[in-house]
Amino acid sequence: MASYLVTGASRGLGLELVTQLAAKPVTEVRIVFAAARSSNPQKLEELAAASNGRVQLVRLDVGVKESAQEAANEVEKKLQGEGLDYLINNAGVMDYHPNGLEGMDTLDEVFHTNVTAVHYVTQAFLPLLRKGKKIVINISTTLGAFSKVHIYQPMPSPAYTVTKAALNMLGLQYAYKYKDEGFTFLAISPGWLRTDLGSQYADLPVEVGAEKTLDIIQRAGPEVNGKFWNIQVDGWEEPRGQNKNQYDGKEVAW
């Protein structure tokens, strides 16, 4: 009967993660906090209304430190003395610069959302996580892996790539800092998904990415603290598709 909080829950992967978590039996998932910055889409509103209280909507602007703390205070009240088991830092943005590095002018903005905001949220929820299962998931991407820079260098999203690499290091810093307390910090690449961020040309339906991401999350424990993991999708064990992606279910080399 675990509790979850998902940031960026109003659309894309975040919305699908909340949807699939809410569909699991109450013996596995007790409550899901769906955190988003602004008004919620009709699907999320309907999901919450039909959940018998299992899906709780939380207003959270991840880029504002005070908003992160206010959200943590709200969740603490709703948990009524219990801890938060899973924090899924999913909220993020992607830039588009056809000229690559020469045209990149959004690095500060993208860094704040993809890295600094994750730090704000994680800081704010640490006290609640200490009372729960102590598992923090950072949604990352293989675009942020140094080992794959030769593959993804032509991608027109340099700020996204740079900031996801920084996010991986942030998670690793947390992993080492809090390992003696029993925390698990894990980065997961959910694949290139057909969302507003990923586009209709992406490799996988968002439903598949969310399902495979949750498969990893629900098995996560201290033995994978500080790791960077790829989802596993049948037929994608070897690189394929226009960007030579692969989803082999293995640890990603930094």
Describe the model.
This is Short chain oxidoreductase. The protein has a single domain (about 1-230), classed as Rossmann fold (3-Layer(aba) Sandwich), CATH 3.40.50. It has seven helices and seven strands. The chain has helices at about 10-25, 40-50, 65-80, 105-130, 150, 160-180, 205-215, and strands at about 1-5, 30-35, 55-60, 85-90, 135-140, 185-190, 230. It has a seven-stranded parallel β-sheet with strand order 3-2-1-4-5-6-7, with helices on both faces. The model has no long low-confidence stretch (mean pLDDT about 95).
Q: What CATH architecture do you see? A: 3-Layer(aba) Sandwich
Strand fraction: 5-15%
Rg, nearest Å: 17 Å
Helical residue percent? 25-40%
Order of helices and strands: EHEHEHEHEHHEHE
The strand line-up of the biggest sheet is: 3-2-1-4-5-6-7
GO molecular function: oxidoreductase activity, acting on the CH-OH group of donors, NAD or NADP as acceptor
Organism: Penicillium chermesinum
InterPro entries: NAD(P)-bd_dom_sf (IPR036291), Sc_DH/Rdtase_CS (IPR020904), SDR_enzymes (IPR052184), SDR_fam (IPR002347)
Keywords: NADP
